Backbone:
């Protein structure tokens, strides 16, 4: 039987139409579902701020990611911290309360977990197959992935900006939560943060998305958001040591260990007009309030030298001081300064969400003090 | 029809050569690991590679991590690209369609044959790597030749919990099933290309071009909105079977995405092939 050409053409057209329609339906389905999800209602920003600050007891479990666009240099001993702010970190979080939570940082080759339990904190590293029990709470520590979860980041930002201007933002739907929005505009001219936008569940105050934008920038430099979240209480047990894994116990504060901070000389009580806050660590101090705070760490000359080289390679500006030199690197909203006193004296690392001018002035005072 | 395609597949030497090569790569890596007696540093190399030195029963997972990114897709592209275009190039497609079977049935049979090939290839990789892993690294409590100086044995999930043999077994089965589905989505793309051209090599290369493009876009931050739709985006999510609890989110998303690719590209292959002029 000979099939007429027109019939074949019609059949062909019908089949491709079916394929095109199925393809279009599959491509548009996620967009339609997202568009149909309700946004959160507008809320008074001050009331929402209070609700968010009180949300520390709201249990949740979810899957989140944070994306940092800060092109940090390859800092010696601080590679993991730099990655947090320069790449995407994916996390699975279980939060039953302030002293019972678990955050798993997921990678394609492993996993790192942080458990906060009533008796102690624990970390698990699949790469080294080591369970570590952390005893004691350092007053000052390096940032870790769990700090970038939307609830933790939002509450830290709001705690650091009391009395700053608040604006309402249009609601949006984040991970299925109809969230209300809030913008904080820091008033302190010394901070490099231009604004922080956050969205939270208007019923419980649980933050589900945070965007931090540097002063003078349009795109946020740090975004942390849930991809899926349920506001239900998870069951979290103290991790057991699996056969074949290692166990360590540590009380050492990680900041001083990571930076090999030197505690032989005390840091000045006031720097650039800002009083030092007790860090609980020798050779480490935090100066100033809120978002305009910056940390100072006294380090050996070789550490200062390698960080200065890394900062200079990344585009840091080197300038002479009365007694020494300083390399200042600005990656909005973060600024970093490395002081290298003359004659191989001990150096200082300065870092904070402040303008580079603040760190340059503080570096000058530190170098002058070392030169005496 | 399916039985005929499977018989043809089994009788093709190139099929056995490709499966042999797939099994050989993990074996070579295992020999180097065993003779060097040290694992890659944490976070470097393929997943699980740093853990297998203390327990060879985890080596099938490491083997899957070794072959999945490149070697397995190449093998799938060759087989799927050859499915229709190879018949056309060999001049047998006309005779094949002269039998009283529909073109749609033929296409389904071709896809089933590719699915069987992928399943068999992965199963053989798992079995051979299990044998090689246990032989070279030993199992819990029985260190092998190279395991004498290794840390105490034990299969540990990525989350730090101990995995029993049965738990490891079902997670491995889940990972294998997930990888098969992942490869089927890719096979559907290459099968469609195989219906477009009469060159099996051209179809295979077209499939590999899709693979490379997807992999390149995966590394590009600017392509973030498109990443969840890239065919390779969730390929490595089989690793989530080895977390505790199993992280189903990406696994579910990956299965949905591959189902979408399977529907769209098998549909396109059907639309093209069912009404195509067969001249060879």
Residues:
């Amino acid at each position: 039987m000979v099939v007429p050409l027109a019939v074949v053409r019609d059949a062909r057209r019908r089949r491709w139409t079916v394929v095109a329609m199925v393809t279009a339906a599959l491509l548009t389905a996620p967009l339609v579902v997202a568009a149909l999800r309700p946004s959160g209602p507008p809320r008074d920003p001050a009331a929402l701020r209070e609700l968010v600050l009180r949300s520390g007891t709201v249990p949740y479990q979810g899957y989140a990611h944070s994306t940092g666009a800060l092109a940090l240099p390859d800092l010696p001993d601080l590679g993991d911290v730099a990655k947090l702010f320069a790449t995407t970190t994916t996390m699975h979080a279980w939060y039953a309360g302030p002293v019972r939570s678990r955050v798993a940082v997921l990678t394609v080759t492993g996993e790192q977990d942080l458990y906060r339990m009533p008796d102690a904190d624990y970390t698990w590293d699949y790469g080294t197959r080591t369970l570590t029990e952390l005893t004691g709470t350092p007053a000052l520590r390096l940032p870790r992935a769990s700090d970038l979860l939307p609830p933790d980041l939002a509450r830290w930002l709001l705690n650091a900006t009391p009395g700053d201007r608040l604006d309402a933002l249009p609601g949006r739907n984040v991970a299925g939560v109809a969230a209300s929005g809030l913008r904080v505009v820091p008033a302190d001219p010394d901070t490099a943060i231009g604004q922080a936008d956050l969205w939270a569940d208007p019923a419980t105050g649980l933050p589900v998305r945070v965007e931090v934008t540097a002063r003078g920038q349009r795109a946020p430099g740090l975004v942390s958001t849930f991809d899926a979240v349920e506001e239900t209480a998870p069951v979290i047990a103290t991790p057991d040591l699996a056969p074949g894994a290692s166990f360590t116990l540590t009380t050492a504060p990680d900041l001083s260990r990571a930076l090999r901070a030197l505690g032989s000389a005390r840091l000045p009580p006031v720097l650039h007009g800002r009083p030092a806050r007790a860090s609980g660590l020798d050779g480490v101090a935090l100066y100033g309030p809120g978002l305009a705070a910056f940390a100072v760490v006294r380090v050996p000359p070789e550490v200062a030298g390698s960080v200065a080289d890394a900062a200079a390679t990344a585009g840091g500006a080197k300038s002479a001081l009365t007694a020494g030199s300083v390399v200042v690197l600005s990656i909005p909203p973060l600024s970093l300064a490395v002081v290298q006193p003359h004659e191989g004296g001990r150096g200082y690392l300065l870092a904070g969400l402040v303008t580079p001018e603040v760190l340059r002035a503080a570096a000058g005072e530190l170098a002058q003090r070392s030169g005496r | 029809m399916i039985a005929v395609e499977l018989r043809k597949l089994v009788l093709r030497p190139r099929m056995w050569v490709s499966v042999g090569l797939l099994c050989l790569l993990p074996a070579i890596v295992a020999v180097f690991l065993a003779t060097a007696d040290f694992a890659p540093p944490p976070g470097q190399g393929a997943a699980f590679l740093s853990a297998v030195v203390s327990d060879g029963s985890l080596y099938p997972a490491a083997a899957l991590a070794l072959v999945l990114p490149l070697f397995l897709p190449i093998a799938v592209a060759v087989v799927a690209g050859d499915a229709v275009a190879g018949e056309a190039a060999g001049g047998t497609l006309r005779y094949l369609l002269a039998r009283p079977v529909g073109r749609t049935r033929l296409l389904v049979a071709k896809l089933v044959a590719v699915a069987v090939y992928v399943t068999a290839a992965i199963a053989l990789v798992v079995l051979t790597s299990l044998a090689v892993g246990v032989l070279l690294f030993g199992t819990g409590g029985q260190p092998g030749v190279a395991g004498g100086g290794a840390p105490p044995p034990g299969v540990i999930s990525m989350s730090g919990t101990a995995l029993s043999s049965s738990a490891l077994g079902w997670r491995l089965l889940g990972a294998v099933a997930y990888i098969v589905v992942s490869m089927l989505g890719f096979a559907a793309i290459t099968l469609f290309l195989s219906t477009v051209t009469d060159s099996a090599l051209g179809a295979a290369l077209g499939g590999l071009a899709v693979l490379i493009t997807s992999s390149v876009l995966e590394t590009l931050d600017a392509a973030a909105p498109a990443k969840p739709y890239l065919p390779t985006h969730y390929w490595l999510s089989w690793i989530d079977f080895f977390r505790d609890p199993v992280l189903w989110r990406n696994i579910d998303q990956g299965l949905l995405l591959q189902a979408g690719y399977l529907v769209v590209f098998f549909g396109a292959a059907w639309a093209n092939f069912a009404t195509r002029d067969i001249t060879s």
